[in-house]
Amino acid sequence: MREVSIIGVDLAKNAFQAHGAAADGSVVFRKKLSRPQFARFMADHPSCLVAMEACASAHHWAREMSRHGHEVRLIAPHYVKPFIKRQKNDAADAEAIVEAALRPTMRFMEPKSADQQGRAVAFRTREQLVKQRTEAVNALRSHLYEFGHVAPVGIGYVPRLERVIADPDFDILDLARDICRMLLEQIAHLTDRINVLKAMIAAMSNEAEMPRQLQTMPGVGPIIALAVETFAPPMDQFRRGRDFSAWLGLVPRQHSTGRKQKLGKTSKMGQRDIRRLLIIGATAVIRWASRRGAPKGS
What we know:
It contains eleven helices and seven strands. By secondary structure, the chain is an alpha/beta fold. The protein has a five-stranded mixed sheet with strand order 3-2-1-4-5, sandwiched between helices. Strands 6-7 form a two-stranded antiparallel sheet. The longest helix is centred in the middle third of the chain and has 34 residues.
């Protein structure tokens, strides 16, 4: 049997498809394995190159494969798609992963550590709670609007809504008033949870060196600093700042051909969380500067 130099793995919850190939790309084996079978198979297999799509659980399995002595390469799914031949199935996906990983110009992702994924859980949970609180506030505003009270958008106007609900002079049905009180309790509970996570994020940002340095920049706070530390690869992988901007998708989309260079809108082909937060931080700095009489364009 020929020696396997690369194994492409199509990850799933329970059924894993493994595609083993030799150094020249020829097929050595195709295996469909259950979750326990896959773990045992990779633990017993001699060290080789393991390629996977950077999808759910990929970073966990990358750490497991590295622990068994394998070299792991994670590929973004949209880089694998062009290599799928005709019909899409697990076997074709695993083969396409091998084909993509063997390309000399392919770009790979750095596997995340357990600490990075732990920080990502805190970041994602805070984002989820903020969305839930926004939904509750908007629901409260819409309910009161049906009774003739109009309130501006924003979490800062919740005390005004609370005073309206507590005032018996406002003509609000008792049933609606009770439900609005329930929404206020939900908003207060979510706010407490958000504040706890905010304190945790601030503590984590102040513990690491790079987040502390990032917070010295205008418009960068603990949340942005933690997002960069969590979701971005090591900064030594970028030759210059523009490369990091391109990785974030903060560069123009190109439609160039021949000698005609056409640059369009921002590509937005990158890490959306960091990009969104940096834009919010930059907007806050511009707003702060404009209020203090900074000249336009400065």
